[in-house]
Amino acid sequence: MTMPESYISVEEISAAIPDGALIGVPKEDGGVAMAVTRALIRRNARNLRLITVPTSGMQADLLIGAGCISEIETSGVAMGEFGYAPCFRRAAERGTVTIRDATCPAIYAELQASEKGVPFIPLRGLIGSDVLANRPDWKTIDNPFAAAGDPVVLLLAVRPDVTIFHARYGDKYGNVWVGPRRETVLLAHASAESFATVEEIFDGNLMEDEKMRAGTIPPVYVGGVALAPRGAWPMALYAGADRDGAALKAYVEAARTEDGFAAWLERNVLSHQAAA
Amino acid sequence: MSETAAYSREELLICAVARLLDGCRNIAVGTTSPIPGSAALLVQALTKGRARASILGSNVHNPFNDGGPELFDRAGQGRVDAFFLGGGQIDGEGNINLVGTGPYPKPDTRFPGSYGSAYLYFSVPRVILFREEHSRRVFVPKVDFVSAPGWSPPGIHRPGGPYALVTSLCLFRYDRERHRFRLDGLLPGATLEEVRDNTGFDFDCPETVGPVAPPEPDQLALIRSRIAGEIAETYPEFARARLGWRG
To answer: Model pTM greater than 0.90?
Structure first.
């Protein structure tokens, strides 16, 4: 199938994300928009704020290493089996990026509050942790419905300015299919705007197809779609098996030093002008 | 693999962890946890599916299909019996630190982050701490950052908490009344003295400490024939390098 006329380019997506924006990104196996990430680095994006849902790997590490990020809310950034995330670690130890440490269900809950349009949401756990102690935006109240004292934490709703993700299919009607990646659906619902890259074009209308409809995000949530085959590379599009382990390992090894990271970035990102 | 033993250290650890899961129906395993994941899959296989393993990152061995929040929602309902956590630092009260050493927010060494610990440590009844590196760097008198506390004062809603701690040297059980670990078994080659030398916190110790029980033949056969392949879906590098998987 040919590319639908309404589709935009990866570069147009990166240009539509202003410096300073709060960007929502799905976790490592959730359809990571790596092609858009590389385009953001090429356009020299600055002061982006990232909320990882709920964690991240190479995407956050690359953006941090390239100097695109001023702040990140996350439950964890690591390279999975390949070890720690070198740029994230360096930035944290030098204090060059503000890290808002969270815990996975708290990030989901912050977005669920935004999805519902309510100002805050309660969450169990957290009490007595330094995660909570370092989050002045979260409050502990006494459960107003309990007979005896029952402290519970309230989290503020978080509405990302824009969410970026990669998905298996897009159709010519602007629908995007993420299948079982419900956290990506949550992100799209909770964000002011979303942009998707898709692996391939679906022949037909995803909203018309009974098997596809439940896993589809309709265009009321998606401001633009770009066709980007292997747009999650080297991350997996679906499950771990299709990730490029050799590329991830090579990245971790290169990024252990700043010079190594700079050389990797030049070779794999900066020298590929306007290439996804 | 060891030259003399009929099983590897990985196989022994998988079996030791599997025993701690006895009686659990819903066993969830989080990120970067190949040995706990293998143990959960082993229990699932041994119970013929009565115990259900949920391996984060797996499509086949994960009964959840409603996205990331589902595991936490289910744990919040009390419907996850066991989970695994690690820690860059773990102290004698069971506090865990997955964030970093030294001052916060600009640590000396930054770890990845707290992941689900600040929630699941509260909500899952049997949290097994799994940390292979047994050193004073890891097992400290007091953690520098509390990702999740080992215990909570009365009045805090807390059905969950630590149950055991498994290391490359030994197995500890956690006493929830006293908020302390008690040494429960030694791994082959490890001595009580070695455990004391490499543990920065004080722990309880019975008069005699026995060895951690070796794997049963049926467990070993299952690990080699089936579990290695099953865990390889999520952890191919681990399965290849440490379980001899040749898929």
So the answer is: yes
